[in-house]
Design goal:
Elements (H helix, E strand, L loop, with lengths): L8 H19 L6 H10 L8 H12 L3 H16 L6 H6 L52 H17 L3 E9 L3 E2 L1 H9 L10 E8 L1 E7 L8 H14 L2 E7 L3 E3 L1 H4 L4 H12 L8 H12 L7 E6 L8 H14 L2 E5 L13 H6 L5 E3 L18
Parallel strand pairs: 4-5, 4-7, 7-8, 8-9
Antiparallel strand pairs: 1-3, 2-3, 5-6
Length: 381
């Protein structure tokens, strides 16, 4: 049962200090966005902020998006919160009677503060974030990859298209069933003195694919935006029937943004369309939102490609249901995790454990740069 959080001067002081703590993290290079602050606020509905360890764990889960962020957050947490009051339940009773800074009997315009017990609390400076016209511009920064890497990704996208091809192309191949191939039948009869011994059949070779790309652009993926952005661009250019969607706190389509543009110009358009990098991702919620709004684009011949690290802050059961639905409806489901080729990678996150039974292929971005990886049909990527 969640413990009720008291409304007291000490608690109000904690709220002000929380805003200062977020600013404290940003000054140390931790990119805390509005989405992350909202995630922390929701987490504190289930954790008593007066519990220091619980507060620390809630901050780690919602504000840190990488191992480096975790180390910085722990250091900043100790430095920031140790400089001020140690908030506990006893602080409420000791801080009930506000007193003027100069004197309790002086009716001045100075700001009142809670009573500070000697040896327990020390004066602090509250840092409050305000609007600044010099704030960084909106957008989702995307850097340009090396031309050789882009060329390798383009070749990998071609191999991937052949591997997941599910639609007939223009060329035919011999088959035991299918339409009668008159030309092959006549050639066979000519070799048998004009006797029509048997009929030859052919069918269209599967050389075309249809892709639906779901790209996780949350804060935890920002270190891989360059390579994944290039991969998304090459897939869209080389596979004609490709629809691209990005998800973080919401799902948005990027197909029209990428149409008819060069690589560098497409990055500019995508950066503006994506907006700032969001906080933690609820992958299951995003997939459900996609299914409700764009599920009509997934067919039995469609390959669904999910680009995500699997860090999910949402409901694991919801993620399992949604990825299971893709597995049942689509031609195949491919998951591209930027960490899958790391030597220490283990699919131990809740998100990856939920999706592994329902994906046909688990890849890393570097697999598209080399021809050693095999696709669902056994062909090299």
């Amino acid at each position: 049962m969640t413990e009720e959080i008291p409304s007291s001067p000490a608690m109000r002081d904690l709220v002000h200090r929380l805003a200062g703590f977020v600013d404290f993290l940003r000054a140390r290079g931790v990119p805390v966005g509005i989405g992350s602050e909202l995630d922390l606020a929701r987490a504190l509905e289930h954790v008593n902020p007066l519990d220091r360890d619980g507060f620390r764990h809630a901050s780690r889960c919602t504000l840190a998006k990488s191992p480096a962020d975790l180390a910085t957050l722990d250091e900043a947490f100790n430095a920031y919160w140790s400089s001020g009051p140690t908030i506990d339940a006893s602080a409420e009773t000791s801080a009930r009677a506000p007193v003027s800074r100069r004197s309790a009997d002086t009716h001045s315009e100075s700001i009142s503060t809670p009573v500070i017990p000697v040896g327990t609390m020390v004066p602090i400076a509250i840092r409050v974030g305000v609007y600044s016209p010099d704030a960084p511009p909106g957008g989702h920064p995307l850097s340009v990859v090396d031309p050789r890497q882009l060329s390798a990704l383009r070749a990998g996208a071609r191999r991937f298209r052949r591997s997941v091809a599910s639609l007939p192309g223009r060329r035919s191949q011999a088959s035991h069933r299918g339409r009668i191939d008159l030309h092959r039948t006549l050639r066979r009869a000519g070799r048998a003195s004009g006797e029509w011994i048997d009929l030859q059949h052919s069918r269209k070779r599967h050389t075309r694919a249809e892709l639906v790309v779901l790209w996780d652009v949350s804060g935890s993926m920002r270190d891989h935006d360059a390579s994944l952005g290039a991969l998304v661009y090459t897939m869209h250019r080389l596979v004609r029937s490709t629809r691209v969607f990005a998800f973080s706190t919401e799902v948005r389509e990027l197909t029209q943004v990428l149409s008819g543009l060069s690589y560098k110009r497409s990055l500019v358009r995508m950066s503006l369309a994506l907006g700032p990098a969001g906080g933690g991702t609820r992958i299951g919620h995003s997939l459900r939102e996609f299914r409700r709004g764009f599920g009509r684009f997934v067919h039995p011949w469609t390959t669904v490609v999910v680009l995500s690290d699997g860090w999910d802050l949402g409901d694991a059961e919801l993620l399992t249901r949604e990825i299971h639905g893709f597995h049942d409806k689509a031609h195949c489901v491919v998951w591209v995790n930027p960490y899958v080729r790391d030597t220490n990678f283990r699919p131990e996150t809740t998100g990856m454990r939920s999706v592994l039974p329902f994906i046909d292929l688990l890849l890393g971005p570097t697999d598209f740069e080399h021809a050693s990886r095999r696709g669902p049909s056994g062909e090299a990527l």
